Fold this sequence. Notes:
Helices cover 57% and strands 9% of the residues. It is of the alpha/beta class. Helix 5 (192-200) crosses helix 6 and helix 8 runs antiparallel to helix 9. The two termini are 38 Å apart.
Amino acid sequence: MRSANLLNDFAFKYVFGEDCKEANDALKSLLTVFLERSVNKVVVKNSEMVKDYSKMKSPRLDLLVEFDDQTMVDLEMQLRQTKDNLMNRFPYYSARLHGSQDMEGKSYSQLKETIVMIFFNVNIFENDNICNTFRYKCDGDLPFVKEEKEDRMKLRTIEMPKVDLNKPLEDMNEQEKMIYYFLNCHKGMEDSKIKMMIESDEVIQMLEKRVETISDDRWKKIIEDFQKLHENEERIELQLELEEAQKQIKEAQKAREEARKEKDAARKEKDSARKEKDAACKEKDAARKEKDAARKEKDAARKEKEEANKQIEQANKQIEDANTRVNDANKRADESAKKMNQMNQEMKQMIQEMFSNGMSLEFVSKLLSKSESEIMELVK
């Protein structure tokens, strides 16, 4: 088996995004197949969107391309096997991509079409469609715009697991063939369907030539190192989890303090009820005439005591629940901190290995899309 794998973020970018005719032809074929439209000319843009607000997250897009009509498409190869935050992340990407157009001094009628196209390695929607396109619509499927040409903001999803890999090759459409190739190109000619497609399908032949350029041992090491670095992005999410855990600790501590205050108040109420009961008993012994009144006071005291006991039980339960939340939050915080430290050490070790292998600081900086000062800061 080959080391090349188009599901790898770095390999995907390189095969379709390198500045050469072969990669550009492969990219046009990819867009033609999955957008179901003719693509004559595309230009790969910078995949890092400009950060125009200091407090706004700057999403890192896999591949940003522009058609000759200035339509912009963001290609995202999403490999995570979970759906966490996906439904929040990609509409955010779509809005940021659409809003990145320079409209100063222009009419909004000049806005160009933008498409975010994501390849998922997990089933997202409960239908049989491999490809789904989402647009602005009102409840009841009332379209937001009257004509499709005015619908300039789209989200296109491709769910690769929905392809039947056992389906005969002759029954597959172009989308299914390309997805099959994505999922199995690392097998090369060892896979009978891959072999048949390479021998008979011009589009797959074009992709195979690109994949062959990243199939030697040198590329295997680079791809593996890049994958480790890419995984470091999860460190940000772990940091958010840590902050959330710390927030929960504070809330649990606050709840515990409130429960303690309630318990103290209940204790005071219980003492007060006991004193009232004693007074009632003394009044009963002192005067038979006040017996009925004393009995009523005693009953009232007993009710107050029962209510006080009930409040104490509730307060004790709140304290117990608060202690449980504090312990759980402490455990999550410790686990998150350990994961963050481990990933930082792995990234540091990886960069040091790159330097040991003779890679220059400039090369490592370009490879990892980080400034030289950031690289040096990481290996301190």
